[in-house]
Amino acid sequence: MSGRSLDYTAKAFGFIEELDRLASPQAIIDAMERSFAQFGFENFIMTGLPHPEQRIESLVLLKKWPLGWYERYTRNSFDRHDPVIRLCRQTVQPFEWSEARNDPETNPRGQEIMQGAADFGMRQGYCLPIHGLNGFEACLSMSGPDLDLTPQTKPAIHLMAMYAFERARLVLAPSPRPNPLTPREQETLRWAALGKSAADTGEILGVTERTITAHIGSVCAKLSAANKTHAVAKALQHRLIEI
Amino acid sequence: MTSIHIVNDENRAGYEAILDEYFRLRHEIFVGERGWHDLEQPNGREVDAYDNEQASYLIALDHDRVVGGLRLYPTVLPHMISQSFAHLVRGQDVLSGPTILECTRYFIVRERRMGRTDCRLLAAFQQFCLEEGVTEVTAVVEMWWLPRWQQAGFNVRPLGLPTMVAGQPCIAAAIQISDNSLRHVSRLAGLRGSCLMRATGASTFTDKVPHVAT
């Protein structure tokens, strides 16, 4: 092993130790800026991957992006067409932006987005997808005009990126939210998930069909669900019920 | 409801059928699904040199069906990291000690990967280790798994840089055993109490540690 790669190991471990002491998003941004600069990175963003009904702005954990690009990106909902975001959903391995192949036939805006980023100095990039528990999907995407991405640097960058993401997640984590559904609502929804009608469920639980319908209505309101099926899907996705 | 059973040399006689199914699933998952063909066995049971009287297993059972499992092995003995993956550890300085175990062959069957089985097994793992006086557990893990452990509330420190193993970036890491982690993962698993089952005859792990390390 060369002296250089030992050097990268020491740098990565030093960075990870430093992260442990950081308590604010800004402190993490500053530390990332310093440590990733040695590989040529100038910009980065840590964000959840939006579902169709979500806006990316609400999922950004932290960022150091040119303001003009961020405004253009969010105003135009570029995340819907960004080849990097698309590849994030398909792989668990980190990749270079150049590996996010774009087919102009199926995604005509992809090329425009990559070119737009390049115009802001984000010519090359490296992205780490995060596939966490309970369907949590996110990424840390980093870029610069000229990156030092080699088989020697990449393992260090991979590890540093993963711990930077984790530190930001911890620092920004909302306090755990209790299940918004009452035990009776959970029980009602569990029967719905098993295919029971409101009448069936009423019979099982010894209450009227109207009561069951009211429970489901309340569940739909709490979960912003359009109907019972939507509510069941959301409750399962967020682990509010178990079948 | 999934419960996690401790199986070791003391009580394995009561778990023969379950262990056989457990080894069959290991073959199905690690050879069949993950493609680790070095482990292939003609009898369709994935059993290696560390499946001996020193190993303890945590096996996730739903009624009598095996849905997941992991293996724990003393680090004071030659173990998988010291024998096969020392190059994943910074300076090849393998972490070992009487209160440190190695975890290998972690799996959840395919149809349970969307549910809470993962968190249940991880909760049982923390609880078992706390009860046994274990302080840290080392493992080689695929990099993309690391955030899952972290989100389960585990404090995981890297022991080296990511290294390609069987075409996947993997890392040697040490999981800290703590009450905090147990609380966090138990909440994610929706557990009010323990899901760890200890059939009689199972002695504590520390009684069994061979006296090769001082």
UniProtKB/TrEMBL annotation, chain A:
Q: What's a Gene Ontology MF term here?
A: DNA binding
- InterPro entries for this protein: Sig_transdc_resp-reg_C-effctor, TF_LuxR_autoind-bd_dom, TF_LuxR_autoind-bd_dom_sf, Tscrpt_reg_LuxR_C, WH-like_DNA-bd_sf
GO biological process terms, semicolon-separated: regulation of DNA-templated transcription
Show the stretches that span the lipid bilayer. Answer: none
Q: Which UniProt keywords apply?
A: DNA-binding, Transcription, Transcription regulation
Domain HTH luxR-type intervals: 174-239
List where this protein forms a coiled coil. Answer: none
Gene3D superfamilies assigned? Transcription factor LuxR-like, autoinducer-binding domain, Winged helix-like DNA-binding domain superfamily/Winged helix DNA-binding domain
Any one Pfam family here would be: GerE
Task: Tell me which PANTHER family the record gives.
Answer: DNA-BINDING TRANSCRIPTIONAL ACTIVATOR DEVR_DOSR
Designated name of the protein: LuxR family quorum sensing-dependent transcriptional regulator
Q: Which organism is it from?
A: Microvirga lupini
TrEMBL record, chain B:
Do you know which InterPro entries this protein is assigned to? Acyl_CoA_acyltransferase (IPR016181), Autoind_synthase (IPR001690)
Catalytic activity reads:
a fatty acyl-[ACP] + S-adenosyl-L-methionine = an N-acyl-L-homoserine lactone + S-methyl-5'-thioadenosine + holo-[ACP] + H(+)
Q: Does the keyword tRNA-binding apply?
A: no
Mind listing the UniProt keywords for this protein, alphabetically? Acyltransferase, Autoinducer synthesis, Quorum sensing, S-adenosyl-L-methionine, Transferase
The GO annotation for biological process reads: quorum sensing; signal transduction
Alphabetized GO MF terms: N-acyl homoserine lactone synthase activity
Q: What does the record give as EC number?
A: 2.3.1.184
The record's similarity note reads: Belongs to the autoinducer synthase family.
Name of the protein described by the UniProt record: Acyl-homoserine-lactone synthase
Q: Say which species the protein is native to.
A: Microvirga lupini
